[in-house]
Fold this protein.
Amino acid sequence: MPVVALPESVMLTPQSHEATLEQYAKLSAAPPVLSQAMTSLYGVVKDPSGTPVRGVRVTVRNEETGSSQVTATDAKGAYRFNDIQSGNSALFVSATGFQRFNLANIYLGIGRNNEIDATLNPGTANETVEVRGEAPALMATETAAVSSRAEGQGTEAEGKAAGDFFEYKIKQKITIGKNQSALVPILQAHIEAEKVTLWNPESAPLRALWIKNTSGQVLDAGSFNVLEAETFAGEGVLETIHPDERRLLSYAGDAAVHVKYSEESSEKPFSRIRIAKGVMLMLKEEHKTNKFTIRNADTDPRQVVVEYAAEEGWKLSPGTPQPEESTESYHRFRVPIDAGKTVELTVEAIHPDESRVELTNLDEDQVAVLTQQKRVTPALQQVFDSILKQKLKVGAIADQIADRKRTSDQIGVDQSRIRENMKALKGTSEEKALLQRYVGQLDSQESQLAALRKESIDLTAQQNQAKEELDRMIMTVNLDEVFN
């Protein structure tokens, strides 16, 4: 019997979702600083059979600064980080049903394209395969130091950072009998958490915790359980979370939230035409509108977080609600929904598109498009008419030169034929009479060739003059027309 696999888009895999890059309530007015030498990291994640694994979470962390970036593999198992920090780094690869793959002590060269592939072995997330590279720097490790002497419950720990290391020191001593082991809580602290429903087009709605690490300590990577009214509600996984860092952690599906979305795209007429130094720049905008219809079928209200893909070159329109935060891949919009209600969210994005036309290549079809869009002002019309008229003059002279060349080439073919005939007449009775005739034809053709050469020289001079006039005309144009 054939087996039909469950589509990945409906798999409710617990995740620690991308970290915040921008919180719009606290945005800095300073523009982003771009690195002059871009360092990138890419690779492919496969299972032991060599099959690419899709949707794998890949994290790269700079061990010198502690900053990290997160992405996921595509359908071909490929991942890529662009413009990351160079230096001593670590790579963490994790997916449900596989052992975690940790690669430490790697060095990412500045301005280089670094490639690291990974193979995931079947297992659980609690099992880890650790590999060390050969970089000349230490790997940042996370340790929990436990002193075993006195018994105690509600044990508290004090976090301590030492460079890129951190450790937990238990304040109360505990006693563990010989040949015995115990699970000892090393950190108990209040963490700000809000229960939300997370949705994006690649996944079914997920129950999630939107947490902020208010413990003052580093939260180590691992798994967690969620209890509601002392009842198990789900489980999830989290990456290392630093103090005051905000993260979304999904832990279960949300069958009460239903989302329908549609997308419409349109291309607006040119909004600006600028001509300077012989170049015409035409600016227009592509608009893309996504409408999300969200239904809450539960008897309790919901805070729904809609993830909208942040595409390169696209920006949100002024009329779009401001997202609560943005990550490398998504803008996150908060949508409150009362019990049993339906709410719509409309997000419009704009992509500026600039066309560049050399005025020497301007043609009537391009002018016709602008005319159809009602983007030809009287000043532009005068410029277009003058340039096209001069281009026609240059083209007409070029046609005359080409016509003279074709005639000259044909005369050359005829002369070759006559000379071959003259060679064939030697020693025949018709030689004298035909030679006199052929010599007359050749003489007439030579006169015609001389006239054609003179005409061609004169026409070339006229063409050069017309081209110079066209160049002068083009370079003197300086216009900037803006349209509403």
Notes: The chain has a mean pLDDT of 82.
